[in-house]
Amino acid sequence: MKKIQIKLITILSLFTLAILGCAKESTAKTMKDNMKSDMMKDGMMTKKTLVVYYSLTGTTEKVAEMIKEKLGADILKIEPEKEYDTSSVSKLEALVKKQMANKEKVAIKKINKDISEYDTIIIGTPAWFSEVALPVQTYLSEQNLSNKKVAVFTTYGGTYGNLLTNFEKNVKAKQIKKGIAFSGKQVKEGIDKELNAWIETLK
Ligand SMILES: Cc1cc2nc3c(=O)[nH]c(=O)nc-3n(C[C@H](O)[C@H](O)[C@H](O)COP(=O)(O)O)c2cc1C
Question: Is 37 within the bounds of a domain?
Fold first, then answer.
């Protein structure tokens, strides 16, 4: 009889301990979630950066990857539904010119990135006739950046005209930082120093 009583007490104690353990774990989780949500509200946890770019021939991509590495940022590549054919430059230019003249919204692949967790969005684009490349224009038209710090960089062949200032004027953001442009030649030769200095201005 005494043995049974001891066994029962042991089982009951173990059961109580298990329940207490679960309750403690779930309380800790709730407390952690509440803290996280409070910190989000206070803007303490939204210091993440996302680099969003489009690149047809790899130059903008190279810069985007460098920024990603330097900032420990996340990265997102914009991809058109129908990638541009680069086999004929004249045909490619004619197509883009026509799309721009018609103010076409070039279709892009579905974006599976929720930007709500990011504080800063860095947009990377090649210069296309001194404008933001069309796939990037589509992305911008589909996103709400009004509560973000935003900066732009562009890569170009010869001249990028007013691309940076137009972007800075037209994009609705919480804060727009001064953008930067690199020629393809500069990117090839190395832009480490310039990039580091620019990144400092974003902080
Ligand atoms: C359709 C088209 C238009 C372009 N327009 C310009 C331009 O106006 N000015 C310029 O300097 N380079 C221009 N370029 C060259 C690209 O901006 C440059 O090569 C850029 O670095 C390419 O970036 P990516 O390799 O990331 O695509 C143009 C290229 C294309 C395909």
Answer: no
- The total number of structural domains in the chain stands at 1
Q: Whose CA is nearest to atom 16 of ligand 1?
A: 156
pTM score, two decimals? 0.81
Q: Is 92 in the pocket of ligand 1 (CB under 6 A)?
A: yes
Write out pLDDT tens, residues 95-113: 999 999 999 999 999 999 9
Structure tokens, 109:
């692949």
In a domain, 27, yes or no: no
User: Is residue 111 situated within a structural domain?
Assistant: yes
CATH code for the domain of 63: 3.40.50.360
- Determine the distance separating the centroid of ligand 1 and the alpha carbon of 11, expressed in angstroms: 74
Q: How many CA atoms lie less than 13 Å away from 53 in the CB half-sphere?
A: 29
157 CA distance to ligand 1 middle (Å): 6
